[in-house]
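Anyone opening a protein record will find just a pair of labelled lines. With that in mind, the following record should read easily:
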Amino acid sequence: MRILLQRTELLFLSFGLACLALMLQPSTGSSGVVQETRENELEVAFEVMLKRINRLSQIAYSLRVRNAELCQDARPTYGFDLHDKSSYADAYRRIAAGRGLSEKTSVRYVHPDLPAAVGGLQVGDVVLAINGQTLEGKNTKAVSRIIEFFKEESILEGPPKPLTAPLQLRIERNGQMKEITIKGIVACHYGVILANSETVNAFATGTRIWVTSGMMTMARLDKDLALVLSHEMAHNALGHMSRKRGSSNPGITVFTRESEAQADYVGLYFAARAKYDITEATGFWRRMAQKPPEATATNFLSTHGSTLERLAAIEGTVEEIKEKIRNGIPLVPEMKEF
């Protein structure tokens, strides 16, 4: 059984890179010491940023692939992300260059279980051409548009090509040229982007999902972050942007109570289908509710809420999913009244 979901238009930026801004305190030391301290702080901040982006990619790919049949807007994906020196803010480009990044597009992340890894693509590979089209002089944004073009072309040509839509890559690795073929695998077509904010928040836009640095700190376990991403992915898949309410805070999306209940319900299925442990889902949302108000003002809790009724409904969904697993019943949400 397939859930009929509203189709949304999207250019998937799987490697949506958000840069962290540093707030450095004035120093009374020598200029050399100040510069060295600043460089060290930039190194640490850059490393933290990359780890967060890669963690988002890891979980998002798993969720998108495992739930493709529940998303009407599904496209081929390959399981790798790209970047170049220009992908980062000016403050980080010296650090990026020190790590070997240049104007050429290279591989930032490869999901270990998806086609890119199977095809032999590795982190650090420089991508020189895609399907015979040279990438000389093109940055990562331009390369992403080329990949999207091939995805769109495969969809227009009809099935079964959307399930494969192979990419022929010419890459450079350690000074040697290699040809790699990567078959696509169908996935929900929603980009996930890291936002630089220590406020605990995550929100859906209908085509993308934004997650703050603060939320990633709060959701320290992958299963917790999967719950957050699944909830927001459900908002997108269910077409809730057309049913959002107004907010007194610019840029804040407030969904109806019915939409939130649906996203809780379907989102738990999304997480479970991707093999994430949902048994302690209510515990995570309770911990979220215990955050100081100033840490969650005008963001996740103020837009999503956390009531006893809602927690009880989440626990009921967890039991429903566990029962289906015990009885070997496919994990497909039952669209009920909320």
